[in-house]
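Thread: quick sanity check before group meeting

JM: Hey all, I'm pulling together slides for Thursday and realized we never actually wrote out the predicted structure for the chain we discussed last week. Dropping the sequence here so it's in one place. If anyone has concerns about the input, flag it before I start.
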Amino acid sequence: MSSRRDFLKGSLVLGVAVAGGKVTILTPHPMTPQHFIVKHTLLTPEGKVIGEKTFTAADPKAESAYDLPAGFKGALWATSFCNLHDLWLTELTV
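JM (edit): ok, ran it. Output follows.
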């Protein structure tokens, strides 16, 4: 049986790029007053927040960038929260 996490993970694909010690998250999603991305978060599976950014409907797109701690290697979770459809998760390894 699939979990809610599995369903949400597969229903929207976040654009996540890693370059030069920085992670960039881009959510391909409308940004209108009725329907927009509220927040991005980058965290470890243990719950340590690397960074987060809050958006408003006035933002042209949901894009954020975070500096990784020096020498960081391991798993990360990139999340995107929509005001209507809940949370999406993309897992990545640096």
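AS: nice. Residues 38 and 55 are 5 Å apart (CA to CA). Residues 1-10 have pLDDT under 50 and may be disordered.
JM: adding both to the slides.
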